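Page 37, continued from 36.
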């Protein structure tokens, strides 16, 4: 048995899903440098629409823009109501 706090079954190497998805990580982050703010805002709109498709309760979307060498850096935090929604959103971006 490993020393983590997960409920493991030594015979079948199973683990309780609740120990993996425990709602402690409900934030998805996105960061990218764009040529200009218009491109960044276009991506923000697209990502926000994707988040709205996943949310069961309103997702808190917090973008920040910063001028950097080569363009505009956009960082976004998406705060979902549960970790499963966060994972669905992240997987949908792949």
């Amino acid at each position: 048995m490993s020393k983590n706090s997960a409920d493991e079954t030594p015979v079948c190497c199973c683990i309780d899903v609740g120990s993996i998805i425990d709602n402690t990580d409900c934030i998805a982050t996105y960061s990218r440098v764009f040529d200009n703010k218009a491109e960044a805002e276009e991506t923000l709109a697209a990502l926000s629409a994707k988040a709205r498709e996943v949310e069961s309760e309103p997702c808190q979307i917090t973008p920040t823009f910063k001028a950097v060498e080569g363009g505009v850096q956009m960082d976004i935090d998406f705060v979902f109501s549960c970790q499963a929604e966060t994972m669905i959103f992240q997987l949908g971006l792949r």
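Strands lie at 8-9, 14-15, 27-34, 60-68, 71-79. Flag for discussion at group meeting. The helical segments are 37-54, 83-92.
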